[in-house]
Amino acid sequence: MGRSSEDLAIFIGRRLLQLIPVLIGVIVLTFLATHVGAIDPCARWFPKAHMDTIARCQAQFREPLVVQFFQYFVPLLHGNWGADEYQNPVLPQIAAHVPATVELVLAALAIMIVIGIPLGVIAAQYAGRWPDHLVRLFYLSGWATPTYVGAIVAAIYLGPYLGLPTSGDFSVINPPFPQRTHMSVVDALLAGNLPYAIDALSHLVLPASVLAFINMGIATRMTRTSMLEVLPLDFVKSARMKGLSNLAVLYKHALRNALITTTTVLGVTAGGLLAGTVVIEEVFNWPGIGSYAFQAMGATGLPNFDGAIGAVIVFAIAVVIANLIADVLYGVLDPRVEWR
Amino acid sequence: MTEPVLSVEHLSVDYLVAAGRFRAVTDVSLSIPPGRVVGIVGETGCGKSTLAQAIPRLIPEPPAKIESGRIVFQGTDLVPVPAHRLPLVRGTGIGMIFQEPLNSLNPAYRVYDQIAEAIQIRHWREQGILPVFRPGPTPFDYSRRPMPGTAEVLSKPIVPGGATAEAAQRRLRTRADYRREVLEYLRLVRINDPETILHLYPHELSGGMRQRIMIAMALSEKPSLLIADEPTSALDVTIQAQVLTLMKELIDEVHASILFISHDLGVIAEMADDLGVMYAGRLVEFGPVEAVFHAPRHPYTKALLRSIPSRYKDDGPLPSIPGSVPSLANPPPGCRFHPRCPIARPVCAQEPAPPLREVGSTPTADAPAHTSACHFAAEVEQLP
Amino acid sequence: MAAPVIDAPPPVGPVATRPGVRWIPAVRGFYRIMRSNPLSFVGFLLVVAILVLSALVVVDPHAVVPYGASQQTGAYTAPPTLFRWPPGGAHPFGTDGGSLDIYSEVLLALPLDVGIGVLIAGLALILGGALGLVAGFWDRPGTLGGVGSAVILRTTDVFLAFPSLVLGLAIVAALGPGLWQVILAVTITWWPYYVRLVRGEVLAIKHLPYVVAARAAGVGEGRILLRHVLRNVLEPIVVYFTLDIGTILVTFSTIAYVIPQGVPYPPVGAARPEWGSMMSYYYGNALFSQEWWAIVFPALAIFVTALSFSLLGDGLRDVLDPRTRRALAETSTSAAGGTPVGASTASVHPTEGG
Asked: Which string of DSSP letters, residue by residue, matches A15-64?
């Protein structure tokens, strides 16, 4: 009924096609944000550069805006995303940093799912009573905590208290195995090196937990709302009348339906998760695109103009892809949706 | 006299809401012998659905509260049973089918999965993997003990095969076994070519099909009591007829007792052996269905029967009952029907209605007594 | 024809209705919300306290703030003094190495931070709401309005693709540091959410039977839509506005933290301090162990303020849930390329009965 694998391919394909105008818009917007209205950008972006770099930069900025855009856009498509102060190309740098952020975000998502969703179920079960209020207080506190506050508190207090490392993704700068995927845990596992994998995991725990705690509200809140809608429905009563235990009714029947909207919302709020990585990676010295962007913006030391633009574009692409995944997941999880 | 499958004794169910306390069901007593179909009929808001869902303790207890009474199922009172033990009695003990089959089947799972789940629960309970509410008598096993004496043999049920039977029971059911059983139950509810619908989702089926599947799901656990809460009210008339016919055939095959709730007198007339009439939370009349239909002994029942439009008469306006159903927050004093009753007397407003008392036929081994909760039951006969 | 599934308890006796005053039901509804959810009541009280305190700090600072901004207290002690609760002359939140009274700085920053939250939320609401109205009303494909509406939607999708913090940082990096630049940056990242919200509401209203009936009866289209749409859209807007004040505050202070030149601290001249830049300044320039109070109290201030608004907003959302759920469903239909107006195959199909 419109749900065969060919239909799914078309479903995904159509959405991929719709990605393209958005991606172009993203690049245009990033360009505008960084080039328009910039007052003396060259001095700010290249404060300590050579005279000829600044001269070249100023020549660039004197061109009409459209020309500037194409001067930027065309090399972008060819993989030339510019270079930093020391003439190192930006794209390989970004490519090396992205997987670590992916690892961090996935870990945070895992924590949000494992902790946040059951909390939402509990809150829905005991709606209006004290477990509900406790859960609500918990996730609203996460929401109200600025990222850097949470990160600093975790780094300064929780880390030493729990004995968890708070810096970097490994205990040594260069672990003794090739970093093929640039994801710490995955690389260690691929190399078969279990002690290092555990080391990588222990480094992952704190930053992922902070990221998860701050964004937990999304998962919990949506689960609670969906469960509250689903629980009074008749099929939950049918499930109870089959003789299933309360847990089975809640998780196997009710949650299965409530998850449809929850997963979609989780995917869409990928943006919030990515925004959090900027500060968290900086505080925890995590080698991801977030700390790369942080440094590229010039908050610490020299700014990296092309790197900053590249990082922002990568963030936007990631959000767009996450939304795509969420949309597809929705179509898959809800049997009533047709994949046309 | 065999023990009734279900015996409700003076059950009262309250709803506690912010605005106050409603008594949705007041002092209802009825009993369902094994193999019998008991119907409950009444208008919207009379408490029949509350009664139906209170019996397996299905209504969430925070807003609802069983204020008093006993619900005795197979000899055990369900009211004091703690919530975590309630799943044990449901499924294989009490089954239920609901009104709106689109909402009563889980939209996210296929037909096969939903029925197989029910069958699996029954299997696991039979095999002892899951606890049961009240274990049945243990069959005698010849392979394990020294040969029994005659008295022992005569006192216990016999399971042929002993060890092999046990082993057969404990063998893990394979997917093929489940599939076979699911198909069996689908054929039981008269679905032709059941293989074609196994992989479908509920929203891909028609209403009548969904209702059959729900019946199959409930029956597959072989409950002793089946509660049918307005099972045909949401169906078209033709489909309704099909499903009712199916249920009547199943009653003969399945040997469960049925509690059938409906607002439709015609449906009840077809299905029920015994009939109870509810009004404003109380049972006002109860008895064998022919007795209640042909010789109603409560003014409400009489008025209800009179208000069914007949296809062949064309004389004058449709008779109806003046007034409207009372609010359960402020029920009228005395008998709740007295403001609308054609034979109301002053005593009806002052004294509460009497408990159900026998009028007319005496109970036999098969049929219950015909009872009515009216002071003036004898006069009902004379009403037009 | 079908009887209800459960015999629900009939409504309570006659509800007391006094003709005339229309806000009484709203007040009673509000009271019910507060009573049912003690957390939102706490949030409400805190929000009121915060607003009152902000007003006081602006109107009559000397009543609540012991020292002015950047005013050195003369307490040249090292290590600086810690909590001392007796009023008058003491430093409840301690002082920093340069003898600035932290309590005063925190209080002085209060109206700025809260005001910024309200301002940005308001701007985003007005801008996004207006665009959402336009995109919702005139969206028939093929007409000029349809094209305009599609343009608005695509642009919104593009903006939504940027995590708010990232876009804000990029804009500030481009425009240079400064309070108004940061405000502009955050506003630019926030308005798309309101476009989606309002548009979703407009689309939902447009096809309601009573609106269609009114249109058929000849009532002016713009007028009736405006009246009905505004009435219905008010509820989720209030919820999101309240919630957003807290979230915007957190985002703004994060940008101020990351790019401290945005809101300079210590404040120069008549400027006010800001919590995020305060934290950035102290975290960067002082040993945490020696001056933890200078970092902790601004952080607490942000936390409590954001939490209060979030508690209030979350409680409100409980009651106004169905619409915000619908609005959430709208925002969740993918921003990956956006979905054609009204024809998303991933939107929930109303399951047809039978």
From this structure: HHHHHHHHHHHHHHHHHHHHHTT-SSHHHHHSTT--HHHHHHHHHHHHS-
